[in-house]
Hints:
The protein is α+β, with helices and mostly antiparallel strands. The chain has helices spanning 17-23, 31-60, 189-198, 204-208, 236-244, 254-261, 278-303, 309-312, 316-319, 323-333, 452-455; strands at residues 75-76, 97-103, 109-113, 122-127, 133-138, 147-152, 166-169, 174-181, 200-203, 342-343, 346-347, 361-366, 378-384, 389-390, 399-401, 416-421, 433-435, 441-448, 465-467.
Amino acid sequence: xxxxxxxxxxxxxxVALSILAAxxxxxxxxxxxxxxxxxxxxxxxxxxxxxYRIQYAYNVDRSGPEFKAPxxxxxxxxxxxTPADTTIQTPNSDTPYSxxxxxxxxxxxxxxxxxxxxxxxxxVQLIDAYTFNFAxxxxxxxxxxxxxxxxxxxxxxxxxxAGIDAVIRSETQLINAIYRTQLFGPDDLExxxxxxAGYKAQPLSAFLGKPAPAAAPALAFPKPLGAQDERxxxxxxxxxxxxxxxxxxxxxxxxxxxxxAKLGIGPGQRFDFAxxxxxxxxxxxxxxxxxxxxxxxxKQRLDTHQISSxxxxxxxxxxxxxxxxxxxxxxxxxxxxxxxxxxxxVLALDSKGRRLDGSHAYTLRFAPGQLPPVHAFWSxxxxxxxxxxxxxxxxxxxxxxxxxxxxxxxxxxGGVTLHLQNASPGAERESNWLPAPSGPFVAAMxxxxxxxxxxxxxxxxxxxxxxx
Length: 468
């Protein structure tokens, strides 16, 4: 099996928490400095806290409606996402998902991938607590021949055991792995179920047939803020402190953590908003508001295609600690793929720069020979705003994708025109209808395993034309 092993690297050495604790200032910062720290810490921490909210729902809250499985166990969903799935914003509805939340404190976890037929795309995206995509398995990264991979946390010492194809190192103790398995159509679901049943995860000791090491101490997971409360509550910093306590500090962030500590933010710190003076409380609130203003400016650059999704998602090395990009990525669509795996041209404005709204009708036309260039497949998915969730509609269609091409009506010249609108465009055009909500919306294109012309800009996504 051919493999790309560029991701098999040892994590950088970590900074001891005691060093950071010693940097905490006994004197609280002034209002201006507190505001600046709060803004920076919020931009830095929002994606981590939002990811924790999802992991808590999926792996901790056993009585919750979104619970998937305990830590270190794979849970598969043998269906695509619908409007009933509301935990993750901007969800993919192309590929049935499998999930595993990994706790790597006690020992590594071994992931086994079965051989998968050639021509069926799949991927396993490994995401650390910072929300960096630190490694991939799958059709693009490792091929469809199957394999066995060991995921190790920052404290693990050792080499590659026999029977392991590659060792993957994580910066953080708690991570996510998201599996995407291509579904060709409703009659293909049983095949997807069989593939999902072949995805396996086990502790290294079980894989080697040896006694398990001592269990890691039980964690008192704090109940997360709700998705809306995250956007304004200073208590986000308390949750961030918990996450950072399980995420050894990267050397590149030593000075940043020392600065955050002035406000009680960071590993080993205690953020006590109630104890702050009224002036500092207001400074923290203002800093959070400043963070959202910065995010809006970056989102505007995304909507106008000054930057792309390919700039927002990736490894720490790729993002170069661009925390604003990391926040905007989480707000726009947390757990988006790195650009080599998928890109997401966002259709947020029409051809004249106006926001999209279901009170109007729009067309999206792919000229002959201008369908999205991919090795795997492409799609266009509808989301209602501002929630960025799938749109309930009478025909239960949430996207149009390349496997649907045989059912789409072609233009006279062989092109394809999609109709994005709230009401049916009529029986003759309904095959090409992507239903929109009655109010604001965006449409997200997805190109899985994009070809070079999509990555280098030679191919550009068409614009939406408003039909008045």
